[in-house]
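Notes from hallway chat w/ T.B., transcribed later so I don't forget. T.B. wanted the structure written out for a chain they're using in a teaching module, and asked if we could keep both sequence and structure tokens in one place. Agreed to drop them here.
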Amino acid sequence: MMMNDARKRGEKVEDSGDVYYRAFIWGIERRMRLQDNRRLKSTDDLEEVTKQRIAVAKATAKAKPSPILDRLHADLLPVVIQLRKEGLSWQKVSNYLFEYHQLEVDRRYLHKVFTGHPEFPVEK
């Protein structure tokens, strides 16, 4: 505000050094505020702050739920169990799901998802 007023009066504030002095004072006040709030004391603390921010980001990051997995467990579990009881291979189960349920899923993914599932029969 003061700079605009000075310019309107025709004064060159930049030549007086006032701008540089105010910027210097603002920087010192900013640094003191950071120290008083115990947010950042030195460059060594910067590493600690960065580590803490990364930890918070990892803790709050949630994995995106898989719509295929949800559909397999919710709707298609009885179908997959029935097909496997009838002796179909994982590849044939995958082909069946694609043809009749419009769900494209790899045989290895099916095997990984359903191996060890409590409702799924144990493989021989």
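Follow-up for T.B.: The first helix runs from residue 2 to 8. Might be a good example for the class.
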